[in-house]
Every structure is written in C-alpha cells, then in structure tokens.
Amino acid sequence: MSVSHFDYEAKLADCAQTNYKALEDLFHKEAPRMLALAVKMLSQRDDAEDIVRDSFVLIWKNSANYDPKIGTARAWMYSIMRYRILNRLRQSGRHTATEADWIDNLPDGAAAGPGASVSSSLPQRLAALGDAQRRPILMAFYNGFTYDQIAARLAVPATQIREQVRAGLSTLAQGEAA
Asked: Which of 37, 84, 107, 121 is most exposed, with the fewest beta carbons within 10 Å of its own?
C-alpha cells in the first residue's frame, strides 16, 4: 500500500500563482479538520463554517506571503484560522475555554469527518506533558496569549515560556511521528 504525500507548500505556491485547483485541493484536504477544530473552539457550527470559509479566502489572498522559513504551510493555514476564531470570540464577548476544556475538546478523527486523519492521541499526549509545558502551549495556541502575556500570568520570564513551548511542541511532534 503506497502512501501519497500532499505537498502543502507547493499548493500554496500554486495559489500564489492564482491556480484555483490548488485552493480546491487544499480545501478538500484540510477543511474537514479545520471545521472540526473550529466547531470545538466556537461551539457553534454556523460560526465555525464562516470562520473556515473566511480562512480559506485569506489563505488564497495571502498565499504569496507564506514563508517556509517560519513554519510549515499547514501550520500557517491553521494560524490564520486560529486568529479568526480568537477575534470572533473576543468580538462576541465569549470567553475562550479553560485549559481542561481544550484538552477534552480537541477534535478527533470522527469529528473531522470521513477520510480525515486527525491524530486521536493528541489529547493524551497533551495531557501527558508536564504542566510547565502544557499550560503555556494551551494559553498561546488556544487563548491567543503572547509569550509576554503568558509570562506575566504565570510569573516567569518570557524566555522561559518560549523554551517551555518549544520543548512541549517538540515532544508533541515526536509523538505525532511515532
């Protein structure tokens, strides 16, 4: 059985050249996962669908600005959606979920829909991280706090927060590769 490789970077480069098929390919590959995550974060499917649609419009418009030196294309796409979600939560006056809520509500493969392959072990891997790594990751990625804001809330230096987030993300990535 052969495993096909989906080249996100190439698809974004094609989008930058106004290749609509590349956007369609990205949408079909990631929209189910993005929608599952947006529904979990917003608790409202209509809002989540709007966010995913708006995110793909921004992905299309800004695809030429993607820089692989900063991170993966897929992470770039999800960061666009995450900022849209956080803005929607702030505008609506709704509060973001607590740390325990985020771990409990991470999307699984079933929520993402048929054919999607979201790692079902992510909640377990997050829960297995030490508190010093897990809390800053959740505060940064799900609550939208900057390293400085996290440092102030946890009363530790921002450099320590950066190191904890990097170490935690590295541990999570190693678990994904396994």
From this structure: 121
Upper half-sphere CA count for residue 171 (Cβ side, 13 Å): 17
Q: Which of 52, 51, 45 is nearest to 29 (CA)?
A: 52
Helix (H, G, I), strand (E, B) or coil at 68: coil
The residue assigned the tokens 């050249």 is 17
Contact 138, 102 (CB under 8 A): yes
Residue 150 and residue 161 in contact, taking contact as beta carbons nearer than 8 Å: yes
- The token duo for 178 is 């396994």
CATH classification for the domain delimited by 119-178, as one of 3.40.50.300, 3.40.1360.10, 1.10.10.10, 3.30.450.40: 1.10.10.10
| pLDDT tens readout for residues 104-159 | 545 444 344 444 444 446 677 888 888 888 888 888 877 777 888 888 888 999 99
pTM for this predicted structure: 0.62
CB 45 within 8 A of CB 39: yes
